[in-house]
Amino acid sequence: VRGYWGSPQLPNLMKPHLLSALALALVTTVSVRADYSFKESFDKTGSFNPTGTVVLENVNGSVEIRGSDKNEISISGEKSAATEEELKAIDLTVDLSADRAVVRVKLPKREHHWWWSGDQIRASVSFVVTVPSGARLEDIKTVNGKVDIAGTRGSVSANTVNGSVKVSDVGGRVHLQTVN
Fold first, then answer.
1. What is the 3-state secondary structure of the chain?
2. Cβ atoms within 10 A of the Cβ of 6, count?
3. What is the pTM of this model?
């Protein structure tokens, strides 16, 4: 059979079967990835220098950062996973001092998985971070999630893969990057 999808060369009997197989594969993939019913909230707040530095590296989740007139940082959000074991396996570290906040998410590899579902645990972490408006957002990264930053006056460096970057009401040097 030669030609492209929908061409007259493709036998009419094959079209419904191919379409059904593609639809089933898509539904199966989406349902496997979307059911993160095990959840756990987190929240950490501390004093923070008005020009302190924030580094945040995330995998599978959104990052929202808002500027504030307070000299404190608040890091909150939610961890979600497909199973209780995967929820417990999420490696979330928050190193917080008065001048620097470093937040990292690592998702360990699964021993047994299907080739289309990837080798990382089925989990995500979403963040809402409030910082002094003059804080420097040095390295804000996420994969499979959006980055949304508003109301900051310090420098911003943010990027995402498979997501969008939205920035509003910011000052200072801004470097943004997105892939896909």
1. CCCCCCCCCCCCCHHHHHHHHHHHHHHHHHHHHHCCCEEEEEEEEEECCCCCEEEEECCCCCEEEEEECCCEEEEEEEEEECCHHHHHHCEEEEEECCCEEEEEEECCECCCCCHHHCCECCEEEEEEEEEECCCEEEEEEEECCCEEEECCCCCEEEEEECCCEEEECCCCCEEEEEEC
2. 8
3. 0.78
Residue 134 to residue 120: CA distance in whole angstroms: 36
Q: Per residue in 66-84, pLDDT tens?
A: 999 999 999 999 999 999 9
The region that residue 172 occupies, defined by phi over 0 for left and psi between -120 and 50 for alpha, beta otherwise, is left
